[in-house]
Write a sequence for this structure.
């Protein structure tokens, strides 16, 4: 949407580096008119073929979470791509990052680095268990958040093997909503 479209976030540019649940943060912003540019790795967003139904080779979940967004492929492990990312940030209002703690900072793309490029940037980092502390490096996913929060009991079969119970994950939906509200 353009600045004159009347949408609440028209004219706001958002750079996103995330997939699955955290990508819904920027979906909320795009729904309000923000210009969202999703930065994807060379392999693309794994959600494209993660779950059914698949429509024309693309997961409906991917289409839903990434509606209203543009995307660009950048291998942020390469210096040239990091420079392109910095140029995107220079002209952005918001950066949403949901990579493993410290992964952008190790590439010279952490909050302090980006703030030096664009002092007015709003930076939202969302991770499963925070950026510091004993759990920061644990793999994270929606139902795991709910289990840690005590919202769902871990399920085991008769042989004692754990499995994912049928459950609509609260964390996968609440986290992105709160992230979007925090940005606003």
């Amino acid at each position: 949407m353009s600045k004159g479209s009347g949408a609440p976030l028209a004219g706001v540019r958002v750079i996103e580096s995330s997939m699955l649940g955290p990508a819904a943060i920027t979906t909320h912003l795009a729904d309000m008119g923000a210009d969202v540019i999703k930065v994807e790795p060379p392999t693309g967003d794994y959600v494209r073929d993660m779950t059914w139904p698949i429509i024309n080779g693309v997961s409906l979940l991917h289409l839903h979470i990434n509606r209203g967004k543009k995307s660009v492929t950048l291998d942020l492990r390469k210096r040239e791509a990091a420079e392109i990312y910095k140029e995107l940030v220079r002209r952005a209002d918001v950066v949403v990052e949901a990579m493993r703690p410290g992964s952008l900072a190790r590439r010279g793309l952490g909050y302090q680095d980006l703030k030096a490029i664009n002092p007015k940037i709003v930076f939202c980092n969302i991770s499963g268990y925070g950026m510091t502390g004993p759990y920061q490096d644990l793999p994270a996913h929606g139902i795991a958040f709910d289990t840690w929060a005590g919202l769902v009991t871990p399920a085991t079969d008769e042989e004692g093997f754990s499995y994912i119970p049928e459950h609509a994950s609260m964390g996968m939906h609440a986290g992105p909503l709160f992230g979007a509200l925090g940005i606003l």
